[in-house]
Amino acid sequence: MSDILAQSLAIPGLWVMLATCFVAGLVYGFAGFGAALVFMPVGTIFLPVEAAIASFNLATIVSIFTVLPRALPLVDRRGTAAMVLCALPMVALGIWVLKQADVTLLRWAVIAVAAVTLVALVSGLRYRATPGPATRAAVAGATGFVGGSTGLLGPVLILFQLAGQDSVARSRATILVFLTITSTLLLPLMALQGALSPSAIPLGFLMFLPYGLGTKVGQALFDPAREGEYRTVSYLIIAAAILLGLPVWD
Fold first, then answer.
1. What DSSP element (H or E) covers 24?
2. I want to staple 8 with a disulfide (CB 3.0 to 4.6 A). Which of 40, 99, 118, 203 is the partner?
3. Nearest-CA neighbor of 244 among 64, 60, 48, 39?
4. CA distance 207 to 232
């Protein structure tokens, strides 16, 4: 185990990834989304996509203790639990695709999904219809598949929630609770398919502290009355991560 830890400490770009983890946690703490959108484009510069997904999702377990307790009372627990259950089989399918696909192609997929999500968020896309159970199940399934195959669990759900009519606080809480629980359950699904490499585990633990600290700072900064300012900062950070993560810089 000590050899694996030493290898993790020797990974090129480790300090860049740790700093990015802090920023990802900061964004997640106040916006309720965007952590993977910040980390994955940068993490996949230095790590295989599977290792980047596994180590980052291990780090995000700390969200259970830092931000989940405050968000839980604001959500429809039964509805959110149903969406998590609908997402899990598609997460498993997405992981299978991850194992079969070309690494460079997956990196471009990560960038493309992040960019499309950012454009849609900035454009202020909204809908007025009240989504039923079938719509929520479809959204959860699509969220799970994209998350399993690219490591970006957020984009589909973020678009669905932020384009709806829920209040800022409720939308943020729903996204945060869903992503925290689903990203934690993604890890055993990766392990079952042999996609959880031993080297990703100590790296994930190294990311615990900066990510957890970021979520606490971000949560302290969150104020629904200043939501517009925080989202603008989040969008700029996500855009910077996308540009830095382009495979053309390799």
1. helix 14-31
2. 203
3. 39
4. 25
Q: What is the pTM of this model?
A: 0.82
Helical residues (DSSP H) of 126-199, grouped into ranges: 133-150, 154-162, 168-192
Round to whole Å and give the CA distance between 18 and 194. Answer: 25
Residue found under tokens 């957890």: 212
47 secondary structure, DSSP code: S
- Classify 110 as helix, strand or coil: helix
Residues near 149 by Cβ (< 8 Å), separated by ≥ 6?
A: 94, 95, 97, 98, 101, 106, 109
| Alpha-carbon distance values, 16 to 13, 44, 110, 210, 241 (Å) | 5, 12, 19, 11, 12
Phi, psi of 165 (to 5 degrees): -110, 5
Q: Are 127 and 90 in contact (CB under 8 A)?
A: no
